[in-house]
Amino acid sequence: MAADYDLLRWIALIPLAVAAFNLFWGRALGRKAAGIIACAALGASFALAFYVFWQLPSNGMFRDLVYSWIDSGSFKVNLAFQVDALTAVMLLIVTGIGFLIHIYSLGYMGHDEDSVRFFVYLNLFVFFMLTLVMADNLLLLFVGWEGVGLCSYLLIGFWYRDPSNAIAGNKAFVVNRIGDWGFILGIFLLVTELARQGVWTLDFAQLQKHASMLSPQAIGLITLLLFIGATGKSAQIPLFVWLPDAMAGPTPVSALIHAATMVTAGVYMTARLHFLFSLAPATLSLIAWIGAATAFFAATIALTQNDIKKVLAYSTVSQLGYMFLAAGLGAFGAAIFHVFTHAFFKACLFLGSGSVIHALDGEQDMRKMGGLKARMPATYWTYLIATLAIAGAPLTAGFFSKDLILWQAFSHGALALWAIGVITAGMTAFYMFRQLFLVFHGESRADAHAQARLHESPAVMTLPLIVLAIGSIFAGWLGAPEYLWGSRWDAWLAAIFAVPEAPHGAATTEIVVTLFTLGVVAIGFSLAYLKYGRAAAPAPERGGLWYRLALDKYYVDEIYDFIFVRPFTALSRFFAEIIDPWVIDGAVNGVAALTRGLSQVWRRLQTGNVQHYAMGLLVGTLALLAYYFSQL
Amino acid sequence: MMPLNYYLILSAVVFAIGVVGVLIRRNLIVVLMSIELMLNAVNLTFIAFSRYLGSMVGQVAVFFVMAVAAAEAVVGLAIIIAVFRQRQSLDPQDMQILKW
Amino acid sequence: MDFSTLIFFLLAGLLVIASLLVVFLRDVVHCALALVAALLIIAIFFVSLHAPTVGILQIMVYAGAVMVLFLFVIMFLNPAVLERPRALWWSAASILALLLGGLLVPLFFNHEPPGDPVASTELFGSPEMLAKSLFGDFVLPFEIASVLLLVAIVGAVVLARRERSAP
Fold first, then answer.
1. Which helix (H) or strand (E) holds A65?
2. Any CB–CB contact under 8 A between A484 and chain C?
3. Does residue A536 surpass a pLDDT of 60?
């Protein structure tokens, strides 16, 4: 049952209002105060979101119609928000983790001259993200989708004075746009196909009612196009290339946008339209395979990277692959569960890396780190907990969510996908512990100057880390399997995803599978420990062909540049240098030249001799007479 | 009385001859005289119709045509005099400075 | 063929000949005289068509005043040049004029003449009748025509003035 609830719009509008305020009067207010009210905005949003969540019955929905946007004949699209169980989860993630990251940013960006602009962009981002998750129709979702893309661009290129940051922002935006192209086409196709049946709508509720009216081919094409959009936003193959470059932005941005929220928009969209995707088994199969492939592929790259943030970036791509793997199997609840847990530990990892970078005065190369354990205890312990979570150590959040996905794969009979997922889990454990050991253990490889300045981060940065670390453990306890204490998660989302997910099967099978996964993870951990954990200074890495390939990210960027970018710029140059001056200007100038030429001919009629003009009169009169004559 | 057509045809013939004069002659005064000829042909038409329809309007029209023709001849001759003073010629061919 | 028809064709022929003389004679003065003849013949036609007032006016104004003015100007300017005819131009113009006549004439034949002329009264065409129309229905054009004549006079005087050198 649905109820109207005016409160919903304020969850999104408060950050927008504060962003607007800071935009105009932030500098006057002072950087510190501007940052504080930005955090307060998020705090208020989180409080409201929690309140709404508390009030929401698990099978209910709240609605808030803000504005009648498009009203054209029978096609109506409104600026309206809706909150059901799925949206409530996303709301809590966005506002909760967003709030923590805002507080962290007070410390991290505290010395930055442009921090006011930073908080404006960050609040604006939260507004668009909330619009995306609370939208009650696909078009408004797309507005939020575009908006977060814009804010991502603004924030990646935040330190715009360095051109490489601006280029990274451009790359993110352009690659996203390619995905958006697919998304838009999907929307158009959806509208026209439904219109063919006489239904004109983009509201999710209406779509769910009428989805079965569409032909299988139409649904297949629509879902494929929408998924292309998702690959852009959520960094899957083939459009993941922007995410590692996005690390050029400040670390809180990487944490919020490129780990916890924006990149999960693709998963959310898929879950929101689950009724559509469920009718397109071919697309779902494609989604699952792309998810698994991306997870594996990105993990191999993460094995070799030396930049602390790049490891986390590829790790994010890999974990997103897991989410799409789950979605592709039809286990949308499991996918959202992994979104939830991943938000906690990935944000914790990114903020922790930010703490390290901040302590080392901007150093990001792990080969120059080491031995930070003693000097930065808070950072170290939270990082350790988050690493355990992402690797899937027992009873951490990551353990429950990742194992759920792997169990779904196994019990659906998709053994190849399951195997890829298990191997990737092992690789995850390896590269995450490699990172932990390289950064925190052993002896310090930083130069003397950096060592002298090394200090633990202030409380404003470590408190969010602690909260997130706690979440990295306990957030997963909501979705425990049957043989432990059962899943509250499934019950919560059951009303949305009416299709029951694969039965959990025999408890023993599940336990065996879980233990197998844990074994692989343990192997990964051990390898990392053996190579990096023991020696005071780990041996410098060198390797053969595969190592170089992975380190250079398989030259994907170079391949794209060769296949797509170069021909495109050549085509643009052709148009700019040849078509524009010769054809277009030629046509315009040609018309002028033609007119001039013709006039040179006609002007000879003006002889200046009156009698010639009189002759002309006579000829005209004769013509008229002849016409009149013929009419008689 | 003659049928109306005869007068009309006569008038048409005189009109055509006047047109020829306007086009052909290289003396401006003769051109002006040809124009007078054309106007008179039209006057003949007016009077013929006036007689045959029994209406005075035709004769009134002729009255006005005559007045205007007189005025026009006066002004035209004045222009010819002025031009002659400039160019020492009455040939239209010598007055082509408004050409392209 | 009765008498009036004969007179008509005679006069018509003379009119046509006079017109041709106006157009084709070389000496300007000869052309002017031919035009006077043509105007007089037309005046005769006017009178025969029950428009005596207009006919007299034709003689007085047209043949009398306007043609005298023409002759004045011819004498005044005394153009010496005799023109050379241009064959191409003359033939082109003649052909076109023939066409014009050729088109007009059948037009006139195509319409039924309005039957017998309306029986005219004694007064038809008399000065009284003309004055009644002129000062009755057509008083506005009459006044405008007088303004037109005034303007023409002024204009002619201005145009024909000799250029005054600066005092």
1. strand A61-72
2. no
3. no
Q: Read off the pLDDT of residues C129-155 as tens digits, 9 standing for 90 and up.
A: 889 888 998 999 999 999 999 999 999
Provide the number of structural domains found in chain A. Answer: 2
Closest chain C residue to A617, measured at CA: C96
Look up the CATH number of domain B4-94: 1.10.287.3510
Residue A478 φ/ψ, nearest 5 degrees: -75, -20
Tell me whether C39 touches chain B (CB under 8 Å): yes
Chain C residue with Cα closest to B45: C46
pLDDT of residue C81: 59
Domain containing residue C37: 1-83
Chain C residues inside the 8 Å CB shell of A632: 107, 110
Residues A411-429 have a mean pLDDT of 89
| A241 three-class SS | coil
C100 → closest Cβ in A622, A628, A632: A622
pLDDT in tens, C36-46: 999 999 999 99
Identity of the residue in C76, C104, C159 whose CB atom sits nearest the CB atom of B82? C159
Residue with tokens 């088109």: C103
Hey, is B50 helix, strand or coil?
helix
| A605/chain C closest Cα distance in angstroms | 16
* Interface contact flag, C117 B1, Cβ < 8 Å: yes
Say what the pLDDT of residue A111 is. 86
> pLDDT-based confidence at A526, cuts 50/70/90?
confident
Q: Is residue C112 part of a domain?
A: no
Domain CATH for C19: 1.20.120.1200
Domain with A323, as residue range(s), is 280-544
Please list, residue by residue across C92-119, b when 16 or more beta carbons sit within 10 angstroms of its beta carbon and e when fewer do: ebbebbebbbebbbebbeeeeeeeebee
CB contact under 8 A, A618 and B92: no
Quote the pTM value: 0.72
